[in-house]
Design a protein that fits this description.
The protein is mainly α. The protein has 18 helices and no strands. The chain folds into two domains: 385 residues, MFS general substrate transporter like domains (Growth Hormone, Chain: A, Up-down Bundle); 57 residues.
Amino acid sequence: MNESMIKEKKEPSIATIGIVLVLGAIVPMLDTTMTNVGINTILKDLSSTVNVMQWVATAYVLALGLAVPLAGWLLDQVSGRLLQEVSLIIFMIGSLVSGTANSIPALIIGRIIQGAGAGVIITGMSALAIRAAHGQNLGKLMSVIGLPIVFAPILGPTVGGALIKYLNWHWLFYINIPFVVAALIATFALLPKFTPSAKGKAFDFLGFLLITGTFSGIVIGITNYSADNIFGKLSVLLPVFLGIDCLLVYIIYAFKQPNKVLVPLGLFSSANFSASTALLFLSGLMVNGVMFVLPLYLQNIRHLSVIWVGIYLIAQGVGMLATRSITGTLTDKYGARWIVITSMVGAAITTLPFAFFTAKTSEWLVLFVLFLMGLTRSGITIPVMSDAYTGLDPKLIPQATVATRMAQNIGGSIATAVLAGVIQSIVGNNVAADVTLNNAYQTAFIWTSIGTLLGVIPAMFLSNRIGKKAN
């Protein structure tokens, strides 16, 4: 009897494990949304431009995405609990560096450190939760561990706006420290060790360098192009071609070394997985890209204070929360295909109005559209994430987690660079009139809407259980 009681204490419930993992993951996700609200303030305080400031967001998301392959390997080498603790400490160090920064380069360095820690935290959250649940009821599980995605847009903008108004933008990063400390205590006290499953496997440094080169080159090329809209210059062509070359070399390398690479090409033999990965890449446009542009739009076109920007963005978070629980249940019952297609079309339709809104548009209409925009978000991320793992061998879960998380975050970094480039190409480096600024943001929203609609194509290859029982 005593032995079983001791065993019970050593093995927390899946709900407890999920809560602890969410507590750690909500810190970096809150930081992302808080920082987006502060971009305009930091831009003015450090006398920067939209094109340069996008690196504050892009460097973080890119570092986060590139940390995912390393996290996937580390999950097979060390205790999952230890990995979460170390990554939380790294994130806290990055927050201190960002908070004390008084220049864009210093801030970007801090954001890279934060992103590296965040990539491991968020990857660990998904992989460890799935491992604890033994791959069962993934739709509902994704709803639980996806809670940071819901609460971040609700709490982040409001908290960030209040910090900037009553303190200063440096506190956007200092505020992370007490949250990290709380997450560290909970992780140490409640999270199981999660013994590594494939200890001893060598890290694929070559594959990691090729993946880093691929996406870093593309992002740098896009950013350099947007500076003056000249594609033929060396500063644009060199990083872009370097990125493409790295991708081609990785494909050849992965084909020849299928058991060694970080992301095996065999994963993409599953239509569900391939479609999910493509959709997660595109979802970065709707999440990271839009959340970079929206606060700038609301402050520069609607002339809202940072506090009111946060209040406006609550409407989107409430919309996400309203559909979150039902989406997981519907995915488990009917499959992901038609839920995602409907949500993709809805996301495109609810983004498009911002291409026509002006400073005089009714605030109630803007809030209503933001709420509708939020309703569509849960219908994309939850079904797609759960469908990516459908039918996969449990041994491939770490690699699948690497690929899906990397696609989502690197897609977000590219989306942010593209939308910042669209804005900068219209505004230029000079102070722009309201009409020019409005045109720039409207164009960015049109690009987002079109990019979202493209997601309908891969969504056709997701799972579909509607009508299957009848056959």
